[in-house]
Specification:
Largest sheet: 6 strands, parallel
Oligomer: single chain
Helix content: 40-55%
Number of strands: 6
Strand content: 15-25%
Distance between the termini: 61 Å
Order of helices and strands: HEHEHHEHEHEHEHH
Amino acid sequence: MMPTETFTAIPGVVSADTEYAEMARRPLAPEQCALIVVDVQEKLLPPIWEKERLVRNVQLLIRLAGILKIPALVTTQYAKGLGGTVPEVASMLPDNSAIDKQMFSCFGSDVFCSVLKRLPGKRTTVLLCGMETHICVMQTALAALRDGYLVHVASDAVSSRTELNWRTGLERMRSAGAILSSAEMMIYELLRSSAAPAFREMLPYLRG
């Protein structure tokens, strides 16, 4: 007879995994979400890994936010030196002034925190896109988690100058409790049904 193996649970691991699974099972609800577009700037974008993919998916998320009335916040990192939001993103948010910051985390800006807290409705979930994954996006995600927000990161709408830093940033956020998703995953989850008028409005852009 083979000896019976016994396993000792590592304190905190099972409960942490269970809690993460519970968060990942919660469906996204438009009325609970805020979209945060982090630092997609003129002087930062050129060396970004797969920058065309990033811009295209950020645009999709912004378009969805407009259709579903999800408020969007846009930030820049030291715009005086690094330039404003790239035109192809800024043009989709003509009524949104970028919140300029010098702290890497968006939550390091008092203006950002104030605007986020004043958004209409009960915004308990933040949807993150932008750059760089391993710096400003990651630090914003960690701060949002510490403040009690549910954090979803569109992994194909964030990037860094290198693929390694993109992957490492995503791993750190996942380990901290952020839910990793993709732009299309977020979009289809928030739209919920192909019968919804919002889906028909969004569909031409999803086919592109």
